Amino acid sequence: MSAIVSLQNVVKTYTRGKQTVEVLHHLNLEVDEGDFVALMGPSGSGKTTVLNLIGGIDHPSSGEVVVAGERIDRLRGSRLARWRANNVGFVFQFYNLMPMLSAERNVELPLLLTSLNRQERKRNVQVALSVVGLEDRIKHKPAELSGGQAQRVAIARALVSDPKLLVCDEPTGDLDRATADEILHLLQVLNRDYGKSIVMVTHDQKAADFATHTLHLDKGRLVEEPLKTEA
After folding, report:
1. Phi, psi (rounded to 5 degrees) for 71
2. Is the dihedral of CA 15, 168, 111, 7 positive or negative?
3. How many whole angstroms separate alpha carbon 15 and alpha carbon 24?
4. Does domain 33-59+76-219 have CATH number 3.40.50.300?
5. Could you give the CA distance from residue 20 to residue 217 in angstroms, rounded to a whole number?
6. Quick one: how many helices (H) and strands (E) in the chain?
């Protein structure tokens, strides 16, 4: 099985004043096509940095980032934006929906970066909202939706351009347990039945249990699963 994500010898540093902070240390990481991977680790371990590199939101200081067959660490500007719009869907903890727009318009936003015409965009939006079970909420604005419904809109937005990969940053962190489980079941369905590869950052072991694989980061390195201690 081919890798949909491959990070090779990736280093990421940030400069804070006169100090250089290394967030990722010669990281090698692969995610096979069709996997649902949970990425866990303590705060500051580099989890969100990895997601940002995979999604083309950030660039490594050195090393290679290959996603969906493209060496994205070499892409910049409009080429990177077009690649991102077609290949990666993003799901965030706090939904990142535009409050003045309806569910339908929020889901349509990524398609404005594509060559699809208005009718094609409308059809894709309807399909994406149907997949997440929100056909009856297309005209509702975020304030008129529950937290679970808002996250489903965010997932529909991530799906609307039919990307190969979904990257999810604490997608259930703002939800109660029952609603969180519904969202995680939906991600499982998208992985199993729709063939979406998923990389999900989470602090929640119960959320990680929904994934097919779990990777652990600590201080910018992959580590073995931490030993579990008795409560």
Report:
1. -80, 85
2. positive
3. 13
4. yes
5. 20
6. 7, 10
Q: Mean pLDDT in each 10-residue stretch from start to end of the chain (231 residues)?
A: 92 89 93 95 90 94 95 93 89 88 94 87 94 92 93 94 93 89 94 95 93 93 65 37
State the Cα–Cα distance between residues 70 and 188, nearest whole angstrom: 26
Phi, psi at 85, each rounded to 5°:
-65, -30
CA dihedral 227, 187, 37, 170 (to 10 degrees): -60
Q: Are 167 and 89 in contact (CB under 8 A)?
A: yes
Q: Between the CA of residue 59 and those of 56, 116, 146, 217, 225, what are the distances in Å?
A: 7, 28, 35, 19, 27
- Beta strand extents in 143-231 (DSSP E only): 165-169, 197-201, 213-218, 221-223
Query: What gap in Å lies between CA 32 and CA 36, rounded to an integer?
Result: 9
pLDDT of res. 226: 58
Query: What was the pLDDT predicted at 144?
Result: 95
Can you give the pTM of this predicted structure?
A: 0.91
Report how far apart, in Å, the C-alpha atoms of 226 and of each of 169, 216, 218 are. 21, 8, 10
CA atoms within 13 Å, Cβ hemisphere of 228: 3
